[in-house]
């Protein structure tokens, strides 16, 4: 009863939010219109088809003509479609067509539903069903006589999405977990409210019924949905997304960690909309940033009030929000969630209680599972700090705990590390994506630009900053750093020794980070050295150091604000002034971004970009030139060399099969399978003999046929045994850590 009485405010707020979520307006279906602008036809009919006033008019005597839409993806369900088209004669039809379906006779495409056009009628309506998890759909009009096309209306079944129910359930779960935490740990309600406010405020751009474009949004939006599609493929963890590139497959999952995406992918599987799930992901990132930074900074600074100040500064930091929305660098933002915890972990290893080495293990693991490049940069800062404080390792216990933390981190992540080392043996496109960092350096004025102009801009390089994306880390951090420097020289009232030492360390590392991200850092000279270029070039952008500058300077600025005054009222007033200023500057950025950025998806078009991706994680033919445009235009059928006939073909996920018969006498016979080439595809004949594979000029999997005149070949994607060993070691390590945590907790209770 005492717990309920002390948490009645939380329970009341939970009830209000629960009822608000369930009662809010929500469309559990999709509805959209397609006009003549969304339709195409053969160039042979240019000048024949009249396109006046948004209406297609096909004249009599034009012959057979097909009007077809672009490819759209639809979720599993039943849909009602109305074609607004009228024909003067019989023979014309309308149809819903799946262009990516592979037939057993090695032809592509199937008609899901069709209807005849009755002369005199101005529309035709029918329903169709998508049986697969998601399917590619075209709308087609087959004209055999004169007709007029106006548009298409689509309406899905009700209950296609279940967002409110899932949101409400997650709210109850989160509130229950918070109650359990408050049962054991006391935390003031005003702290919870302030942290919740900055987290929700940071999610303000997600309040629209659409999602606006960011630099990398297409990639992360696509991989989130594709993970949901592959979640029950029978192979966990997911290493390849089989539906990307029109079902040719893409191994981005093996390179770009997706561990944090699994819970959200499961929510999509349970009925949450892709657009709703992405918004929830952003909200969770902001809440996690608030909670973890508060926990870490409070212990690092040895003060809850100071920890709260640093946490608010960090959550509302300008560049963190720019990274989240303008760049949509979800991996980098996820890694930034755990940078405060890493800072705490390194402090514990070198200056605090080194028995709490687990903090650095958790932090490094989470950063590694969020973003590889952030892991590389974090490791660099840790090595630098260790070298500068190597005397601390004279303490044998600290050295042992440091080695234990490093070894445990490696073992815990071995399931991702071993595949990476194995993959880099091959000529992947990403391995030559080394860039000149000097071309992406930041000018001095851009660091603290208060205008935050051009929030929808791109990274333009050294030629111009007109219309370029903002890089500011915030005026407040500049003012806080200067204030801290002034306080260090104040004679009448000194800063506490630990605050001063911590502030100086963070100020030095923050300035170093800012310098490394600037145009004035000697990146060109460094990258002339081949060995250093391999490391530096992988960073891609010099401004990737800005999240670290933000981290360090937030701590320094918080110390300055906290220690500027000694009386409680002045401290609180200065803190509230800083909160107001950060709220205003972030709100100004949100307004500029929302007004200038284009929309990527809205409620009705949210499935249009679920298969968007890049080409960085494709195996090349020893980096030979290839046409990406031709790769995207490939048909989904098998392709055989001259003199080879195919039958009984199939492709399902990462498995394929075909039967061949040689009708010619060519010295080399082969079949190109509709898969992107990866060395983990294996082909065997009907006798179980392994067949050789190769890569085509379009990076496609080629199976070299044996000498026999006919046979059947099975193709499958096989995970190497070494990867499975890594999986097992990581699982065993995780179980060991959980067991150790439970035993340690029991021991503390007994003591």
Strand-helix topology:
Blueprint: H1 2-6, H2 8-23, E1 31-35, E2 39-40, E3 56-58, E4 65-69, E5 72-87, E6 93-102, E7 108-116, E8 124-143, E9 147-156, H3 163-184, H4 189-201, E10 210-212, H5 217-230, H6 244-247, H7 252-255, H8 262-269, H9 274-301, H10 304-315, H11 318-324, H12 330-337, H13 339-350, H14 358-368, H15 372-388, H16 396-412, H17 414-423, H18 444-447, H19 475-488, H20 497-516, H21 523-527, H22 530-537, H23 546-563, H24 568-596, E11 599-602, H25 628-633, E12 639-640, E13 644-652, E14 655-662, E15 670-676, E16 681-685, E17 690-691, E18 693-695, E19 700-704, E20 710-717, H26 721-750
Antiparallel strand pairs: 1-9, 2-4, 3-9, 4-8, 5-8, 5-9, 6-7, 6-8, 10-11, 12-15, 13-14, 14-20, 15-19, 16-17, 16-20, 18-19
Overview of the structural elements:
This protein has 751 residues and is of the alpha+beta class. Helix content is 46%, strand content 18%. It contains 26 helices and 20 strands. Strands 1, 2, 3, 4, 5, 6, 7, 8 and 9 form a 9-stranded antiparallel sheet that branches. Strands 13-14-20-16-17 form a 5-stranded antiparallel sheet, with no helix packed on it. Strands 12-15-19-18 form a 4-stranded antiparallel sheet, with no helix packed on it. The longest helix has 30 residues. It is globular, with a radius of gyration of 29 Å. 38% of the residues are buried. The mean pLDDT is 92.
